[in-house]
Amino acid sequence: xxxxxxxxxPLAFVGCGVMAEAIIAGLLSRExxxxxxxxxxxxxxxxxxxLQLKYGLRMVEHNPEVTGKGTTDSSIIFLxxxxxxxxxxxxxxxxxxxxxxxxxxxxxxxxxxTLAADLQHSSIVRAMPNTPAxxxxxxxxxxxxxxxxxxxxxxxxxxxxxxxxxxQVEEEKMIDMATALSATGPTYTFLMMEALIDAGVHLxxxxxxxxxxxxxxxxxxxxxxxxSVKHPAELRNMVTSPGGTSAEAIYQMEKGTLRTVLSKAVxxxxxxAHTLGRKVDE
Length: 282
What we know:
Layout (H helix, E strand, L loop, with lengths): L10 E4 L3 H12 L8 E4 L3 H11 L2 E3 L3 H4 L8 E4 L3 H11 L8 E4 L6 H8 L4 E5 L9 E7 L5 H12 L2 E5 L4 H11 L1 H19 L3 H21 L4 H7 L6 H11 L2 H24 L1
Parallel strand pairs: 1-2, 1-4, 2-3, 4-5, 5-6, 7-8
Antiparallel strand pairs: 6-7
Helix pairs in contact: 7-12, 8-9
């Protein structure tokens, strides 16, 4: 029987946007927490009412309420706000956290050093989930400061495991790397989907049929790759016959420098993550 590391642990969400809702929904659907363990903040009354009705958690207007009143020493505080709002929120929360509370930030570009200094707090996890977390198929990469206990690390594994898969890394720079590869990754995938669907329409399929063919082919290919122990290059060679359609298609993609374009896109996203970090610091 597996241990529920989140049993009776209060969780607070500063800002309740799309990703915060994905975490809340994932935890509740897997029965890792009860609604009464959760509290969230949001400035709009309509959004507070929506989440309270939908999930049964307590919602408040002011951010300091979720980190102090109504929480216990073992609570976990999630910073789930947009980068441009982070500075003001950190100022609101500064000095208001207890030493054994855990802060978890999924704010793009927000460095641990900045969070620790502005909050006057040392137990911090920085994480980067991606969009498929909304359906429990996400990939979350995270890192923690030395002050984060083994119990708290197990709790974080449970939280992000409820969203799909999670991976802890030791170096914070890998969070920016994950931002470029896995967090931005759905963008590359969706663009490839769109391009292939358009190609199908160009061939003569209806858009509906082209979309069904492309989505199922991509899904099946990913599942096949996950089940296989082979490198993707080996899998590609398995379906590439000499002089066949795959060989001709690969020739055109290589001629068009598809690999180079993708590599440049990932590198550009990585550099942008660095830039966001500097802006947050400022």
